């Protein structure tokens, strides 16, 4: 019994809750940004507005069935002769099915890891040894927004895409209700960053989002998002922004010296 308790203590103490964990892997790149923009998250051309073309396809463990869409990471290659110590920031817009690398990034992002004047040399690496960490997404003067998808049909079916999610969290659940009503209807993740429901309340609509926060979760309430006459293809400001920082379990934690 004493041996079991000691082993349990070692397992618990070996993992620390961190704001940032540094991971070691490899990264490949697409020569064009277009495949990542039209990727599994469903952002399409709107992806190019997220981080100026610095996009990434992430492996399944980071894509998280679509919950990882829109997550921001700082990636740097490990060759100091070619690459800067700060690396580059990317936003996840696609699923990476290549199990040899954690990321396939856009050519724009791959070159951005380079020291000044070394971008073509970095491209010649093809696949680079990298280290990365998740970082908060920051959108200056931009709230979380929802785009009503073209497939929506007021009042029978509603599909929305989440855009400009700040902070360092994942949206794991989402509900919709008429403004002022306590009767919430759950929405389902259709794919990627797109949520939908065929049980659409009438009138103006409010949303609430369950996001990871620490090692648990919390609800974020957007009180008045869609007008009663909402229309397909339109983007609406939620009036809120997510700024929470989720915790990871790792040892050691990032010391911040990037």
Automatic annotation (TrEMBL):
SUPFAM superfamilies: Barwin-like endoglucanases (SSF50685), PHL pollen allergen (SSF49590). Keywords: Secreted, Signal. Residues 156-238 form the Expansin-like CBD domain. One of its GO terms (biological process) is anatomical structure morphogenesis. It comes from the Eukaryota. Residues 1-17 form the signal peptide. Residues 38-142 form the Expansin-like EG45 domain. One of its GO terms (cellular component) is extracellular region. SMART domains: DPBB_1 (SM00837). This is EXPANSIN L1, expansin-like A1.
């Amino acid at each position: 019994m004493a041996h079991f308790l000691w082993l349990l203590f070692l397992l618990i103490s070996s993992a620390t809750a961190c704001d940032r964990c540094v991971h070691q892997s490899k990264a490949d790149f697409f020569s064009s940004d277009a495949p990542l923009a039209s990727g599994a998250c469903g952002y399409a051309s709107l992806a190019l507005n997220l981080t100026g073309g610095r996009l990434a396809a992430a492996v399944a463990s980071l894509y998280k069935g679509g919950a990882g869409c829109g997550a921001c990471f700082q990636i740097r290659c490990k060759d100091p002769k070619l690459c800067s110590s700060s690396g580059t920031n990317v936003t996840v817009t696609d699923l990476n099915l290549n199990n040899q690398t954690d990321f396939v990034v856009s050519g724009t992002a791959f070159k951005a890891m380079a020291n000044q004047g070394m971008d073509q040399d970095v491209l010649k690496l093809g696949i680079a040894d990298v280290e990365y960490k998740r970082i908060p997404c920051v959108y200056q003067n931009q709230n979380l927004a929802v785009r009503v998808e073209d497939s929506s049909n007021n009042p029978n079916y509603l599909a929305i895409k989440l855009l400009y999610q700040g902070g360092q969290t994942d949206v794991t659940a989402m509900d919709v209700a008429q403004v002022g009503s306590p009767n919430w209807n759950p929405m389902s993740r259709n794919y990627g960053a797109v949520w939908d429901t065929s049980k659409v309340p009438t009138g103006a609509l409010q949303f609430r989002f369950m996001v990871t926060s620490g090692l648990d979760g919390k609800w974020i309430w957007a009180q008045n998002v869609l007008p009663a006459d909402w229309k397909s293809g339109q983007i609406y400001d939620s009036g809120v922004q997510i700024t929470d920082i989720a915790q990871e379990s790792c040892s050691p934690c990032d010391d911040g010296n990037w």
